[in-house]
Amino acid sequence: MEIGFIGLGRMGTAMARNLVKAGYSVRAWNRSSDVRSVEGVEMVATPNDAFQADAVFTMLSDDAAIRDVLLMPGVIRTARPGLIHIVTATISVAFADELVAAHNAAGLDYVSAPVFGRPEIAEAGQLSIMVAGRADAVATVRPLLDVLARKVWVMGANPKQANAAKIAGNMMITMAIEAMAEAVVVTSRHGLSPEPFFDLILNTLFAGRSYQTYSEKIIRGDFEAGFRATLGLKDLGLARAAAGTRLPMLEAVHARMAEAVSAGFGDKDWSIMADHTLRHAP
């Protein structure tokens, strides 16, 4: 099976490498010239070239990037007949509906497969992937997803259902980050350091990966980007749009993330919002 790949950032590069290691032929295109080559991947001149494959992955940053690269130039209308397009990026539910319509018009299958996992998780082939789309199309690309994932969860037949799951999950991660920061404010006021507190919490009430990852960042004060705060703020905006109503906790974390980005920390990891909370606690 020939695979196309659009978007070789840290996540995309790791995913493309794992597909090559699994024996697939991968041709890729990247918007930035910063990525000149990836071992085993054929770099092509245009997105149209990447769409001359059996399936193509898109890992771009947002709705606008996908629209600019694929929809506005009409790239999907030039695709190889029978190609299945797999979008792994975090996009809005409204744009997912737009992509369904565009792919139907072009006679192509569109599968939504956003992922949970930071770049190091992608490198290890241990992503958690939510997938939704026409059942036959999902079944066809499932072996590709299995190469990249610790587990694949099927969310439904409508692609936007996977996007709704991804958006809601990212919203919950930011809530966990802020909850841990505020817990440290409470405990530190009484002389308790974060290390024994998080050791207690991680081994009793909250043992999930997000709590493990971001408690370590809070303890170390390490906020170098794995997932940038600007993208976190974008995703919280998507959650607000998807909700269709005002959600108090979502409004609170959106405001906190916006404050951190406005303070000049947009290129830091999105867990910088915890540092912002700790620094501004009285």
Helix/strand/pairing class, anyone?
alpha/beta
The SSE order reads EHEEHEHEHEEHEHEHHHHHH
CATH class of the largest domain: Alpha Beta
Mean pLDDT: 95
What is the CA–CA distance across the termini? 59 Å
Task: Give the CATH architecture of the largest domain.
Answer: 3-Layer(aba) Sandwich
Radius of gyration: 20 Å
Q: What is the global morphology? A: elongated
| The CATH superfamily title of the largest domain | NAD(P)-binding Rossmann-like Domain
Bin the strand percentage. 5-15%
Helix proportion of residues, in percent? Answer: 40-55%
Strand line-up across the major sheet: 3-2-1-4-5-6
Beta-strand segment tally: 9
Tell me the CATH topology of the largest domain.
Rossmann fold
Q: How many DSSP helices?
A: 12
Largest sheet: 6 strands, parallel
Low-confidence stretches: none
